[in-house]
Amino acid sequence: METELSPEAVHERLLTEARRGRLDGYEKTDEGFMLDALGTPFEYDLLAKLRCEGTRTVVSFTMTIRRALPIVFVVVLLLTVEPGRYFTDKLIPGRWGWIDTRLWYYPLTIIPLPFVWRVCVRKSRESAAKHAREQVEKVKKALAPGGAGREG
């Protein structure tokens, strides 16, 4: 995206839009700015770099995942396997003569984990990309001639 505005004017316009509640998570960075790209269940940051080319300012966007929640998610998934086996052993009386719980419980609970992870990451990426496109459109409107300062 290109604009005739200077990087300082870009930040002023976007800060105005953020204060009006139109830009989620606006934050000025060293190279440009950052916005929220909210996904489900994991959230992303929409990073924008500002680059001057003559009298124009070029804005380029990238998305990066926020790492804290995915790490907690993986740890919780892994830590729930063993207590589940313990409680399952307690629920099935030994006199039933079933095979050892570990032989069927671990494959039943561990094998699906990578698939669950993949679905969660894909769903998050898709929903965050959708929100990021909305954010980029808001930025485009704000940086258009006469974009900031209008009420509505």
| Mean of residue pLDDT values | 90
Main β-sheet, spatial strand arrangement: 1-5-4-3-2
Helical run tally: 5
Poorly predicted tracts of residues: none
Helix percent reads 40-55%
Give the percentage of residues in beta strands: 15-25%
Oligomer: single chain
What overall form do the CA principal axes indicate? rod-shaped
Described by strand count, sense and barrel closure, the largest sheet is: 5 strands, antiparallel
Q: What is the number of E strands?
A: 5
Distance between the termini: 24 Å
Class based on secondary structure composition and strand pairing: alpha+beta
Rg, please?
24 Å
- Give, in order, the helices and strands: EHEEEEHHHH
Short description:
The protein has 152 residues and is of the alpha+beta class.
Using brief descriptors, characterize the structure shown.
single chain; 152 residues; alpha+beta; 5-stranded antiparallel β-sheet; 5 helices; 51% helix; rod-shaped
What this model shows, in words?
- The protein has 152 residues and is an alpha+beta fold.
- The chain is 51% helix and 20% strand.
- The chain contains 5 helices and 5 strands; from the N terminus they run βαββββαααα.
- It has a 5-stranded antiparallel sheet.
- Strand 3 and strand 4 form a beta hairpin.
